[in-house]
């Protein structure tokens, strides 16, 4: 069901307000930045690009945008690249489409999800440097970051997550997550209002992840305590996990996933 125009405007204002707060609080975008947006074709990355395009119209900070879509040729996750090209063209954002692959037999210690994500990330790192971009923007939202923190506690034994800002020391690059304060429910509602086209998701490995289980656990936590989201986020901030220092690109660190 589509929202009425007043509802749509209210949702856009809400998301824009949270994006601007993230940019301000965590120093995600500086004047003169050349940002490469990772465009998977899902609702989160489409929303991210839309909001950044609108933010670009404001005089300060001045920044440029480009987008990249990385296709994994041996994973049956089909994307309509024609739709993505039209989406970017309508917003005056250059789109680069890159194809890569991975072999799950090369490292039995790593899950296929890790290898796939790592190969995609390596392509983005390399392409960003070729284009002269100094930042890569990813579409992870507040729920993603909190779920990752819970997964790391349960399965890795550490209090850690995907930071809103992560700087690299092997290259002049930083990863930013401008949607870090935006909740998934709001993004989903906005995507429906905008009529974003859904992609066909048929990854053979997606059921191997515990992320759906963690998502269900977090929903139960919020029922027990409506402020659980804010409590976990505040704990991450206090421990310095939202803005992180320099990490080595050569280390296959799961915080980059």
How would you characterize the overall build of this protein?
This protein is α/β, with parallel strands linked by helices. The chain contains eight helices and nine strands. The protein has a seven-stranded mixed beta sheet with strand order 4-2-1-5-7-6-9, sandwiched between helices. A two-stranded antiparallel sheet has the order 3-8. Strand 1, helix 2 and strand 2 form a beta-alpha-beta unit. Helix 2 crosses helix 6 and helix 5 packs across helix 7. The radius of gyration is 18 Å and the shape is globular.
Total helical segments? 8
Instruction: Pick out the low-confidence regions.
Output: 246-257
**Large-scale geometry:** globular
Major sheet, described briefly?
A: 7 strands, mixed
Oligomer: single chain
Helix content: 40-55%
> Topology as H/E string?
HEHEEHEHEHEEHEHHE
Q: Kindly estimate the percentage of residues that lie in beta strands according to DSSP.
A: 15-25%
């Amino acid at each position: 069901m589509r929202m009425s125009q007043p509802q749509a405007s209210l949702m856009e204002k809400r998301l824009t307000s949270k994006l601007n707060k993230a940019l301000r609080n965590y120093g995600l975008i500086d004047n003169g930045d050349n940002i490469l947006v990772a465009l998977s074709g899902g609702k989160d990355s489409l929303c991210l690009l839309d909001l950044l395009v609108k933010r670009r119209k404001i005089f300060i900070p001045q920044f440029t945008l480009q987008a990249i879509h990385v296709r994994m040729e041996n994973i049956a996750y089909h994307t309509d690249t024609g739709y993505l090209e039209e989406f970017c063209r309508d917003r005056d954002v250059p789109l680069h489409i890159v194809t890569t692959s991975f072999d799950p037999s090369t490292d039995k210690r790593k899950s296929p999800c890790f290898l796939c994500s790592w190969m995609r990330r390596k392509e983005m790192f390399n392409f960003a440097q070729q284009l002269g971009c100094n930042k890569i923007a990813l579409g992870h939202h507040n729920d993603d970051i909190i779920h990752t923190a819970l997964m790391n506690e349960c399965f890795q034994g550490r209090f850690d997550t995907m930071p809103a800002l992560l700087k690299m020391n092997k290259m002049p690059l930083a990863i930013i997550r401008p949607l870090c304060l935006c909740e998934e429910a709001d993004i989903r509602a906005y995507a429906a209002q905008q009529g974003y086209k859904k992609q066909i998701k048929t990854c053979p490995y997606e059921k191997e992840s515990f992320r759906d289980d963690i998502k269900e656990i977090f929903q139960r936590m919020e029922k027990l305590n409506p402020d659980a989201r804010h409590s976990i986020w505040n704990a991450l901030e206090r421990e310095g996990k939202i803005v992180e220092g320099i990490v080595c690109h050569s280390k296959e660190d799961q915080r980059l996933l």
